[in-house]
Design goal:
Strand content: 35-45%
Structural class: alpha+beta
Number of strands: 11
Distance between the termini: 91 Å
Number of helices: 5
Shape: elongated
Largest sheet: 6 strands, antiparallel
Oligomer: single chain
Order of helices and strands: HEHEEHEHEEEEHEEE
Strand order of the largest sheet: 1-2-3-4-11-10
Radius of gyration: 30 Å
Length: 262
């Protein structure tokens, strides 16, 4: 004969399950609130940094679309307490800078700051330095802007097979010809880009030494060190390379005070 168990023994178990479920729900709600608070705080910091970047760009007499800032690392609030931030990414688009009176277009400039130190007192008072251990930047200068700096009517620049190519109309010994060729692109002192056009030719070039000399003179005339717009955050150019969208410039800096970038 089956042994009967009192029904009241099941009630404590059910109550225990309900309490556990309630505690889990409350814990999930608490975690959700903390995540929301963390993201809200990060958003406030991102807006503050974006405002600072806009001020620095204006000081350099440049223009851009509103900066896009992303404070990386989670949770954000523990980084605030620690005074050290893993990563701050800044994206500038439609940048317009001036070089020797000419407007230079940089469609996009990506800046990545790592291991940023900023004490809570600095954030509260606005006094003191917000220092990034390393800052890396990548930007692209349009070929149209670069061609204007060379100041040769009709000259066009582009990219082919990873090299900078040029086409330009020239008048050699009374003949209107089209010059084509490639250039060597390197970094020059003073955040400049060195362009050296050593391989130019023109179809129909008269087979006389003077014609070749005139073509060589044209190549030397457009082989210059091109200054770049002033870069924020003390960035120094390390590498340049032609790409289909423009001349890509890679720059970096160390121990940079982000709130004194001008």
């Amino acid at each position: 004969m089956a042994e009967a168990y009192p029904a009241y023994e099941e009630r404590p178990r059910r109550r225990g399950r309900k309490v556990l479920v309630t505690l889990l729900v409350l814990l999930l709600l608490l975690v959700g609130l903390l995540v929301v608070a963390d993201r809200v705080a990060a958003g406030v910091a991102e807006r503050a940094i974006a405002d600072q970047v806009e001020q620095e760009i204006a000081k350099q007499q440049a223009k851009s679309a509103p900066p896009q800032v992303d404070v990386g690392g989670f949770p954000f609030l523990t980084q605030v307490v620690d005074g050290r931030y893993e990563r701050i990414s800044i994206v500038l688009t439609d940048v317009q800078g001036a070089v020797e009176g000419n407007a230079v277009s940089v469609p996009r400039l990506d800046v990545d700051a790592r291991n940023v130190q900023a004490s809570l007192d600095t954030l509260r008072s606005g006094q003191g330095d917000v220092v990034a251990e390393t800052v890396d930047g990548t930007g692209t200068v349009t070929y149209d802007s670069l061609a204007k700096l060379l100041d040769r009517p009709g000259l066009k620049l582009g990219e082919q097979d990873g090299r900078l190519v040029v086409t330009a109309p020239v008048d050699i010994l009374g003949q209107k010809l089209t010059v084509t060729g490639t250039a060597e692109v390197t970094v020059a002192e003073g955040n400049k880009v060195a362009l050296r056009f050593n391989d130019l030719d023109a179809e129909g070039l008269p087979p006389v030494p003077l014609a070749r000399t005139l073509l060589s003179n044209y190549a030397r005339g457009i082989s210059i060190d091109v200054p770049l717009p002033e870069l924020p955050f003390q960035l120094n150019v390390r590498k340049v390379e032609p790409r289909p969208e423009g001349l890509t410039v890679t720059a970096d800096a160390k121990d940079v005070p982000l709130n004194q970038a001008a």
